[in-house]
Amino acid sequence: MTGWRLPDAAATEAAGAALAPLLRPGDVVALHGDLGAGKTSFARGALAALGLAEEAPSPSFAIVQAYDPPDVALPVWHVDLYRVEDADDAAELGLDEALYDGALLIEWAERLGPRLWPDTLHLSFEVTPDGARRLTWTVPEAWEGRWPPREFRPA
Question: How far is CA 116 from CA 30, 120, 134, 144, in A?
Answer without folding.
Answer: 9, 7, 23, 18
